Amino acid sequence: MALWLLLAGPADVLGVDAGKLGMAVLVTTAWLSLYAVSRLPRGQLEAVVSPGEWRAWVGFGFTLVAIVYFLSQVPVFEQNGAGASAVARNLVMLLVAWLLLSSVMGSRWKGAVQQDERDLEIEKKASARGRSALVFVVIALAVMLGFSPADRLQWATHFMIANLLVCALMWGWLCEYAATVLLYWRDRR
User: Fold this and answer.
1) Measured between alpha carbons, how far is 80 from 140 in angstroms, rounded to an integer?
2) N or C: which end of the chain has fewer CB within 10 A?
3) Is 165 in contact with 141 (CB distance < 8 Å)?
4) DSSP 3-state assignment of 141?
5) CA-wise closest residue to 90 among 20, 1, 28, 4
6) Measured on CA atoms in the order 85, 86, 87, 90, is the torsion positive or negative?
7) Which residue ranges run through the membrane (predicted)?
8) SS3 for 40?
9) Which of 98, 105, 96, 92 is nearest to 39 (CA)?
10) Are 62 and 186 in contact (CB under 8 A)?
């Protein structure tokens, strides 16, 4: 319901901005779910899933939602008005929720080993893949902007280019988290 309100719902629900309502429901649902998971007694899952993998799953989920939300709001960025400020505010709220959830999940492993050599190796490989994805997108943007005729770049305002670069950063992080999750999964096999 939260994603529907955020991405495809009506402009307002009962007089309330659907984007704000969707973001609030999404953050609340995610926080309550992860808080409930953090309160579960330690079990077999934690013997298999390391703190690094938990962080990667949470980061992947939040980054994926942020990118989908960001891309669904691209027409708002073309107007560069109050709507763009609302999108930025929603993304910052999502970031704050992510930081709070990460700290709640981190407290679950307090006093336990957080990282070992395997985690460091996975982090190193995943970071390289995320960096490669970011470099690819930045080069693609540079080529597109550099070789396109000026009359076809009316949409490419400074504000829009800045937002494309932010999206490129989020893409790099998403690829890094996805690589982390896949590397942990492959390591377990």
Assistant:
1) 24
2) C
3) yes
4) helix
5) 20
6) positive
7) 25-42, 54-71, 91-109, 130-148, 160-185
8) coil
9) 105
10) no
As a whole number of angstroms, the distance between CA 23 and CA 87 comes to 10
Distance CA 98, CA 32 (A): 12
Structure tokens at 76: 């708002």
Whose tokens are 């929603």? That residue is 90
CA atoms within 13 Å, Cβ hemisphere of 8: 4
Q: Are the C-beta atoms of 90 and 20 separated by less than 8 Å?
A: yes
- For the chain, list the strands marked E by DSSP: 12-13, 16-17
Q: What is the pLDDT along the chain (189 residues), one digit of tens a residue?
A: 565 555 555 555 566 666 666 667 777 777 677 667 666 666 655 556 777 888 888 889 888 988 888 888 777 777 766 677 777 777 777 777 777 777 766 666 666 666 778 889 999 999 999 999 999 999 999 999 999 998 888 888 888 888 889 889 999 999 999 999 999 988 877
pTM for this entry:
0.73
**Residue 158 in tokens:** 């400074």
